[in-house]
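Journal club prep — side note

Before the paper discussion, L.F. wants everyone to see what a predicted structure for a comparable chain looks like in token form. Sequence:
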Amino acid sequence: MSSLSSIPVALESETAPEAASAGTSSAGGFPAFRPRFPWLTGDLQTLRNFFLKPYWDLSPWPETPLVFEMSDGSGDRLLAKLHEPASESGRPLAVLIHGLTGCEDSTYIRRTALTLLEAGYPVLRLNLRSAGPGQDLAQQHYHAGRSQDLRDALTGLLAARPDYGDRGLVTIGYSLGGNMLLKCLGEGVSGLPVLAAASVSAPIDLKATQVRIMQGRNALYQRYLLNGMKAESRAPAELLASLHSVYAFDDKVVAPANGFAGADDYYRRSSAKNYLGGIAVSTLVVHAEDDPWIPAAEYAGFDWAANPSLSLLMSPGGGHVGFHGRGSLVPWHDRCILKYLAVRVG
């Protein structure tokens, strides 16, 4: 993806006409999604932030660093940044969980943080194990199934700020972080005051996602992700140099480092689809049919109506963690999450 040239910001328009079939009807009180010109395809929706590199200023809400100990005896710790509104709203704390090769400063994390802070929610931007500015606090590395890390982080948060135990928490995960969150919720969050949750573009079937990302049309995406995974890894350089696919990385690096028999065992045991039936927290699940990384069939294969705690919001368009909709620079998924939280937690 590094070979892709930048598109000028001036090309973007909130009001330019979109493709006639681009919209989806509003359902459940959510706004209809219509792609904002010129991001009219799933790939362009996915790449918009890469092209424009927007930066969302959170400085009006000073950050407080927090460090959380992991319970596995490794000595690893997670770093997070807490932001609180200037005036007390009494709203629950929103915990944001990034995706693969992301961190607290990923564009989508900062954009959601800004949206929620402006709405009066305190926000915690969590770095997963050894991610971003927290890389020197851990020797081990996050992966899609490391759900205990999230429980440990929430437990540590409540120990540091017990007032949020009374106000409650909402959790929002993106892509790999969304899979981790859904798995965690399905396993159970007993003793943690999680009032509501949301996932965006989560790869709930990791094997199906691996197969899709390794298709020829996704070669640039795979190269981008693999380069990022290698950059984060502490595996020997000669091993990393020999790996030429996401599957090979998961098979030779992720699986042996985390007690899996191989990549397929890692995918099977870590995929959120195997845990969705156990989720008891009100959860909004957002996905786009044109996501170039994650097949919509992953979602079609689950009986969402069988679990009343789950609300699936599937849009024809939006790409992967894109959802750049007409009429607002606030991503559509953020607007839908705000509406969902307004009903669920006030």
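L.F.'s comment for the group: The chain has two domains: 34-205+276-344, 214-270. Keep this in mind when we get to the figures.
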